[in-house]
Amino acid sequence: MFDKILIANRGEIACRVIRTARKLGIRTVAVFSEADADAQHARLADEAYPIGGPRPQDSYLRGDAIIEAAKKSGAQAIHPGYGFLSENADFADAAEAAGIVFIGPKAASMRKMGSKAGAKELMLAAGVPVVPGYTGEDQSAATLQREADRIGYPLMIKAAHGGGGKGMRIVRNAGEFLPNLESCQREAKGAFGRDRVLLERYVEQPRHIEIQVFGDAHGNAIHLHERECSAQRRYQKVLEESPSPFLTPEMRSAMGAAAVLAARAIDYVNAGTVEFIVAPDGGFYFMEINTRLQVEHPVTELVTGLDLVEWQLRVAAGDALPLRQEDIAQHGHAIEVRLYAEDPEAGFLPGSGKLKQLRLPAPSANVRIDSGVIEGDTVTIFYDPMIAKLIVWDEDRPSALARLREALAQCRIEGPKSNVEFLERLARHPAIVGGRIDTGYLDRHLDEFMPAQQAETELLLAAATAKLLMQEAERREQALASGDPDSPWAIADGWRLGHAGGRTLAFLHRGQRLEVVGHGSGGEYRLEHAGGRVEVSGARLTDGALSVRFDGQGWRFQVASGVDTLDVHDGARRLRLEPVAQYRYEPVGAGRGEDRLVAPMPGRVVLAKAGVGDTVVEGQELLVMEAMKMELALKSPRDGVIAELRAAAGDFVEADAVLVVLEP
């Protein structure tokens, strides 16, 4: 076994690898960019080396700098994690040439899978089922159009060297093909450096089911059963689970055997994932092999009881696989979701900023948290905005879903916007509960998963009641610290000379101001809101739990107060409010920006679709930005004529920078 390894990655996966290495007594070396000097992975490792600027191409994609750090530190092996250089065959070769073990498959295996087109041809020859399509070298638009017409519609255009949902388009008729082809090629060129595409017949309402495989240098290859990843948004996985609620024992056996066949076809060593698309009738077809550890590997670990990173290290050190196929069993049910700094209501726009508050459920036998940040850290614009992975386990699927809902209810993220409320609605949706979701369901029914637009009455009343109790507790503490703790002026009941006894509470909810007037004290109140009146009795706030009666009916809520926000949760619904002063100055015309198009976040302009003097219409795409590995289309706010274009392709811009100005 190795004495010291370098981890060529960052964030939660680097922290995850460090955890297993430490368990095995292996010293760890981290690398970090200028943006990650204070990151958790750099702090947790035994040693850490700077490797360049904040952009990935200046640091985590610099194989030469990483290998130099490995040499300098005396690391015997490099674990690439996922993303960055994890599937880069040239990097694997360079590490081996430097006398350093690459903890992953051989470069030759990666090259066979590096091209989706070549991989499909190889799998077809090996007898693994594949979807009909075109993988040819001729990439002329005319040939691709002709092949698309031959395959039939709907079909999918895929970047041949892509991954992570980038460079993929669904085309439903011949007239849509060329515009989608051009868009896909441009995205593929920008993301992967090559614009070759492949075409394949699109299976309607498919499931995405993948098989974890492992091989060693002694000729052994096995699978560790499946993970279902059908809950996706724009080809990005949202929820992963094992076992799949769709597979029968016969299907599971057949897919496992096909996955092992695929691994053997490329002499696969170490951890890999064979991804299949599964039709409603149970037919399954090879998609690709991910030649690395997957983000969702914890669900396999929880149902098999195995540490996949430990297996990776042992296999890379030359050991044989520790178990045979017949020794691998599934027990219970595991589900993973990813907590992101993103705004679901703004098209899942990635976010950035300081985590003012980060509250996650405590780890237990049923709950696992894999994270690379802690409260006070900053989610940077340069990398994936993942905050944490939340993984739950229980004896069966209904129990695991209940664990997931309970764990999500305990999550509280203040700072950048997050997808927690979206995930809560996902975990309760009938398509998830019934195990009926397919890869396109979220995109077809996204509105069903969006948070409620209006503040629900019981939650708002609970927030107001909690705020009144908090004010009274604060006033009591102030009185105790004063020279006259029994003064009637210390009672926070709203009574003042010449005024009726009432306290006006003001909150912001999604930009809308809400006011509640409270009369009374000590947990006995009359609340007035929007012309209605509610009698509150027996209100008690203890350790974040509010028990209360509204007009005689009992309720219980969880309440959490942050730096700038107040969260209320009834076990199924969440309400986040921003308490504000009763009187707040708002300048006339605030929010008007109809003449300007601004950058929604920091990023790079990749394409300008209009110029100064052009006449445009409301909703017309004017610019395309790239930020956090996403392309964002920026559209005209109204009809008009462009007076100024303040950014060009290639420019880096800050959030809220004015990019386009329309004539008045």
State the distance separating the first and last CA atoms: 70 Å
Percent range for β-strand residues: 25-35%
Q: Over the alpha carbons, how many angstroms does the gyration radius reach?
A: 28 Å
CATH superfamily of the largest domain: ATP-grasp fold, B domain
Average of pLDDT? 92
CATH architecture of the largest domain: 2-Layer Sandwich
Q: What is the CATH T-level topology of the largest domain?
A: D-amino Acid Aminotransferase, Chain A, domain 1
Spatial ordering of strands, largest sheet: 14-13-10-11-12-15-22-20
Shape: globular
Largest sheet: 8 strands, antiparallel
Question: Can you identify the CATH class of the largest domain?
Answer: Alpha Beta
Ranges where pLDDT stays below 50 over 5 or more residues in a row are 495-500, 585-592
- Our count of domains comes out at 5
Total beta strands: 39
Structural class: alpha+beta
How many H/I helices?
16
**DSSP helix fraction:** 25-40%
Q: How does this model look, in words?
A:
45% of the residues are buried. The chain has an eight-stranded antiparallel beta sheet. It is 26% helix and 32% strand. The protein is globular, with a radius of gyration of 28 Å. It has five domains: 4-103, Rossmann fold; 132-201, Dna Ligase, domain 1 (2-Layer Sandwich), CATH 3.30.1490.20; 208-449, 2-Layer Sandwich (D-amino Acid Aminotransferase, Chain A, domain 1), CATH 3.30.470; 457-580, Glycoprotein, Type 4 Pilin (2-Layer Sandwich), CATH 3.30.700.30; 596-662, Beta Barrel (OB fold (Dihydrolipoamide Acetyltransferase, E2P)). The longest helix has 25 residues, at 457-481. It contains 16 helices and 39 strands. With 664 residues, it is α+β, with helices and mostly antiparallel strands.
